[in-house]
Amino acid sequence: NFVTSKIVKTAVRIKHKLEKELVLGNIDSSRDWGHSKDYVAAMHLILSHKKPDDYVVATGQTRTVRKLCEYVFSKLNLDLDKHLKTSEKFKRPEELPYLKGDSSKIREKLKWKPKYTFEDLIDEMIEFWEINYNSDNLKY
Asked: Which residue from 6, 11, 46, 104 lies 20 to 30 Å from 70 (Cα-Cα)?
């Protein structure tokens, strides 16, 4: 279960009284979150370029898992401190504490840059889960 999806889905479930808590491992690790639509656009540019090359596709911005939780719970008007728990069970033994991509090469050579912000990405995910939990056709 990807942590981003787990956080958003569980927070929406908490809002709808289907869950009581969100249990995570290391909430202080930093990640470079980006939107799949931006990454697909980057892949298209790479594949369309006349000369093959290697590129890093990333936003170049990091946020901690804690900041992600704060944003999601705030958007849903939920008290993060009341619902967030941590557990050693979910901590990865070889986890990298800080991941940030350097996409300067693709930005310079192919003029790519992300169109979606971190907030856009998370807002879309919240909207998806809200629609699913507000409908009579609950699938997840």
From this structure: 104
Q: Is the pLDDT of residue 132 over 90?
A: no
pTM above 0.85, yes or no: yes
Name 23's bridge partners.
Answer: 85
Q: How far apart are CA 42 and CA 111, in angstroms?
A: 9
Contact indicator for 27, 69 with CB cutoff of 8 Å: yes
Cβ atoms 116, 75 nearer than 8 A? no
Q: Are 126 and 77 in contact (CB under 8 A)?
A: no
Tell me the per-residue pLDDT of 91-120, one tens digit each, with 9 for 90 and over.
Answer: 887 777 888 999 999 999 999 999 999 999
Alpha-carbon gap, residue 45 to 42, rounded angstroms: 5
